[in-house]
Amino acid sequence: MLYKIKRTNSDNLDFQRLVIELDKDLAIKNGETNHFFTQYNKIDLIQNVVVVYENNQAVGCGGMKKYENEVIEIKRMFVPIEYRGKGIAAKVLTELQVWAKELGYKKCILETGDKMIEAIGLYKKNNFRIIPNYGQYVNVKNSVCFEKEI
User: Fold this and answer.
1) How far apart are CA 53 and CA 50, in angstroms?
2) Percentage of residues in the chain with pLDDT exceeding 90?
3) Rama region for 142: left / alpha / beta (φ>0; ψ in -120 to 50; rest)
4) Dist CA 49 CA 61 (whole Å)
5) Which residue, 24, 63, 14, 61, is CA-closest to 43?
6) How far is Cα 85 from Cα 89, in angstroms, rounded to an integer?
């Protein structure tokens, strides 16, 4: 399958549509803890977004934003259920890392939930390592944080 990878920002309507699906998925998986996480998942200020297309259909996305001087945080990674298992999330993750490096960042960090088994597997498979929870996630027992030098 031929995929087109597009670098854009959070104004991209396909990204916005995918994030709506992501938020619905997270609301189910996170249950009553979801409200805590939604405050940290705003997309209006994400300047670096990747959207993957299959036959002009948006099938995956992810974004990143500056966390510290040489550290970028990966946010809003999502592939709809019907497109999972095709390596799309890995394409998004790889493109975000390449872009971050081009922008001068040295490390990527991210947070996911302990119930996000597929996401945890993706990050481990792509050489991210589990780290102590950072920032707003420090005392959140169902958060799993990762980092990777790029």
Assistant:
1) 10
2) 77
3) alpha
4) 7
5) 63
6) 9
pLDDT of residue 23: 79
Give the separation between CA 41 and CA 46, rounded to whole angstroms.
10
Q: What is the mean pLDDT of residues 100-109?
A: 98
Look at the block and give the residue holding tokens 């081009």: 102
CA 8/CA 82 separation, integer angstroms: 23
Token pair belonging to 146: 């990762």
In whole angstroms, give the CA distance from residue 100 to residue 108: 8
Going by the DSSP 8-state scheme, the letter that residue 122 receives in this structure is H
CATH code: domain 3-149 is 3.40.630.30
Task: Let me know: does 95 contact 108? Beta carbons within 8 Å.
Answer: no
Cβ neighbours around 24 below 10 Å, total: 10
Q: What is the pTM of this model?
A: 0.89
